[in-house]
Amino acid sequence: MASLSFDLIALQLFAGLALGAIYVLFAIGLSLIFGMLTVVNFAHGAFYMVGAYVGVYILALGGNFWICLIAVPLAVGLFGLAVERILIRPLYGRGIDYPLLLTFGLSYVMVELVRIAFGKTGFPFDTPEVLQGAVNIGVGYFPLYRLFVIGATAAVLLALWLFLEKTSFGLIIRAGARDPQIVRVLGVNVARVWLIVFGIGTAIAGFAGLLAAPLQGVSPEMGGTILAEAFVVTVVGGMGSIGGAVLAGLLVGVVVSMTSLFAPEMAKVSIFALMALVLIIRPQGFFGRAGLMS
Amino acid sequence: MARKITNGSISRRRLLTTVSAGAALAASPFRVNLLQAQEATIKIGFPVPLTGPYGAEAQDQVRAAQVAIAQFNDGGGLGGRKAELIVRDDKLNPGEAATRTLELVEKEKVNFVVGSLSAAVQLAINNVTKERGVIFNSISQSDAINEAADFSKYTFHEALNPHLTSGAVGRYAFAKFGKKVAFLSADYAYGHEMVHGFLEAGKAFNIENLGDIRHPIGTTDYSTLLPRLQALKPDILCICNFGRDQQISLKQATDFGVKKTIQIIAPLLTHAGRVAAGPQAYDGVIGGCSFYWGLEDKFASTKAFNEAFRKMYDGKLPTDYGALGYGGVRTILAAVKNAGSVDTDKVIAALEALKYDFYKGPQYYRKCDHQSVQSVLVIQSKSKELRNESDVFEIIATDEPNEANLRSCEELGHKA
User: What is the pTM (predicted TM-score) of this model?
Assistant: First the structure.
């Protein structure tokens, strides 16, 4: 194979970080819901897929991509609220595997319903016109749209951080995650807090699905692969730690990218090898709190 | 309390099963057949992957196969004996396919089996049918099914094979776009067979193989592979994968600006894939196919098939894989008619003697491996001046039916 130039390695590293940013975007909704609610949301991939389909629907109605960026998270978040209120809420306090099994089943139902309503074939999703093409980043050309996705991920993270750390409602959420009993005694409606957290988590999942649509098209099964990737990122970063998810996402991206350079057929396996390695050395992940699963 | 709930759900389930089975029977087009003549119907088992990533293609196979059945029955059948298609979902899984096929043979007592949409699945079906002595006409691509180890006298292959397809596309592209070729291929039998086919065809053109980057099936992000491929600076990038993998890799290659300097070719472009991924991703990509509805300008048989299909399905046009479903069933039924019987050996002899032009111009089954000798179309995806929603490709070259383009009988291990 051709020699490895500095530019190629630099470009490959950059591609890895860019891919990592996408992994982060996939994982934060999952990580948020787990960290605050200890609900392992197996339907995360399905919400992601629903986000992409809502985008297709809005475009078909004559909307544009920018409207989708607002409307999709709202619609998917509202759907998430309904799911929490009707399906998840009765399961709180019953052990971690109840909501896990429920969301696992729910994901199948959602995928099948989308297949029935929109067909099995999937839909094309063109990159919005102003974001088409590739730009020179110094070491080579890189698609403009991927740079946009990195920016959008950073914006979501910043907004989430401000919301959780700087608002009083964020304080209640964090307190509720630590000790719901005390928060309840202090007169806070914990059920409402959890409802909103689940809504935000699913809204981010839908948003990620919309952003992924121009990268890989839209199909009922599109949530399947990212679910596995999002779990790896969440586990490596430490279940429930958003900062951990960011670090882990970028790391996974770089590992995949560098493996692709030398042994492309091992790229997919490398993700899980990394996870195994981290779990051996640090079972709770980078920034995870021990004992959250028990 | 818990007990009560259990009881309730069981009876509800039973009720649902009964109701849906009844509804299915009532809605089924075979109902008339069932009532008329139980004994006399000619049954064709049709295992295809109705669920899973190739579900859309599989449904099209079923639709087109039903056209062949309807034409046979409207033409009076075999002296009044009607034909019936018995469809089963093989779930794109060799084990499932073997079980369903066994069920078709043992329980449904089918006379023939036609179907499959995967290299591995068709070999699993073939294993069952050759052991039971039932004719199987495979309608998806495979090189192995022609080879002596998998072949039996009961095995027929209506579809193209990777050797034939990649050969046709390679001969066209290598002569036109340059000798430096890089590959991006799916890491399984299909990808390997296609790359091998291109390299074989390339020998005559002295092509230079810059490298083959393999990716696992189901890859959704190619951003880490594409810079590497671009750095190789090939004239031609040959993307050897299928289904969703092809759609996503072409889309991302377009985003990375690969098409600006490199011609992308693929062994096979499917109608369903092009429709699912859209014109942008496929624009300008060159590949092979066994059938395109646009052949109707050239062949009366294509026009007749298109019209029959349109009539049955609200003006829709058949796709490449759909046409194979039609061809696979139609040839069997034609042979039944010629033989005047459903007797396996007589039908085999009739199939071997068949010279047919049913949907894409002249074809026949080669004696030694029962491969259908047929034309391969080289097509290019287009994004402008589309005449209708099915107008997605342009035929830019045709490899006419020629046994020389197949591997020879000796090469495949058949005795002369």
Answer: 0.84
